[in-house]
Amino acid sequence: MTIGVLLADDQPLIRAGLRALLGTQPDLEILGEAADGAAATVQARGLTPDVVLMDVRMPGTDGITATRDITASGGSRVLILTTYDLDEYVFDALAAGASGFLLKDARPEDLISGIRLVAGGEALLAPSVTRRLISVFAHRPARPTRSAAALDTLTGRECEVLTLITRGLSNTEIGAQLGISPNTVKTHVRHVMEKLGLRDRVHAVIFAYEHGLHHDQA
Questions:
Q1: Residue 124 has what pLDDT?
Q2: Do 161 and 182 touch, CB atoms closer than 8 A?
Q3: Which residue has the higher pLDDT, 189 or 199?
Q4: pLDDT at position 176
Q5: What's the sign of the alpha-carbon dihedral 42, 37, 1, 15?
Q6: Which of 174, 198, 203, 195 is nearest to 186 (CA)?
Q7: In whole angstroms, how far apart are CA 32 and each of 39, 98, 185?
Q8: What is the C-alpha separation between 18 and 111, in angstroms, rounded?
Q9: pTM of structure
Q10: pLDDT tens digits, 6-46
């Protein structure tokens, strides 16, 4: 299956480099390019790419607004490409519906595999990246934007799993801590996503922060 990709970045050199890199992969097809968020939104609607590689800081309509507009219509997934791993806008971009982020100094193979993961419905946040987000936003005030009633549908075990997800633990690490298999953890994670109406682990972390469910780590 060919994965359609839309490039959204205000720097022509970055777009050219991405096009050259991704063009070497037989399963990736560049459907279009955009130099700002407004153009990215229009092209995403017309081209319906599987993945939009989205810069955050662009003139005019920024990547956060564009991400919110694109993901609201469904279909295309957004992978944020940012320069700074402590960029204050990254959290807001994820909350807007992005399926993960990479730094622009990431290895080419990581970007390629990341596009495939996001296109397949996975979230592109390795445990180490999740922990970095947590360290940045651990002291942000809770800002609920979704119904907290959904939390009452979680079992005790599912609540435990959600808490450990917010700590950046992988399924294997969660299983080891709870004394259950990774496959069982995977099942619990799926149930958490379904009950809370979340797309992936990234948004499980976002949900936890919005509702003050995270726990500071020493």
A1: 73
A2: no
A3: 189
A4: 95
A5: positive
A6: 174
A7: 10, 19, 39
A8: 10
A9: 0.70
A10: 999 999 999 999 999 999 999 999 999 999 999 999 999 99
Looking up tokens 């480099």 gives 17
Tokens 């993960």 locate to 100
CA 139 to chain centre: 21
Q: Which of 7, 123, 133 is nearest to 58 (CA)?
A: 7
DSSP one-letter code for 153:
G
217 has a pLDDT exceeding 50: no
Closest residue by Cα to residue 111 from 21, 180, 39, 10 = 21
Q: Token digits for 56?
A: 């955050």
Higher pLDDT, 207 or 143: 207
User: In the sheet that 101-103 helps form, which strands lie side by side, from edge to edge?
Assistant: 28-34, 3-8, 51-55, 77-82, 101-103
Q: Are 137 and 91 a contacting pair, CB within 8 Å?
A: yes
Please tell me the predicted confidence (pLDDT) of residue 147.
60
Task: Determine how β-strand 51-55 pairs with β-strand 28-34.
Answer: unpaired
Least confident of 30-44, 51-65, 76-90, 136-150: 136-150
| Mean pLDDT score of the chain | 84
Candidates 24, 42, 23; CA nearest to 8 is 42
3-class state of residue 57 by DSSP:
coil
Q: Which of 92, 93, 97, 38 has the alpha carbon at shortest distance from 73?
A: 97
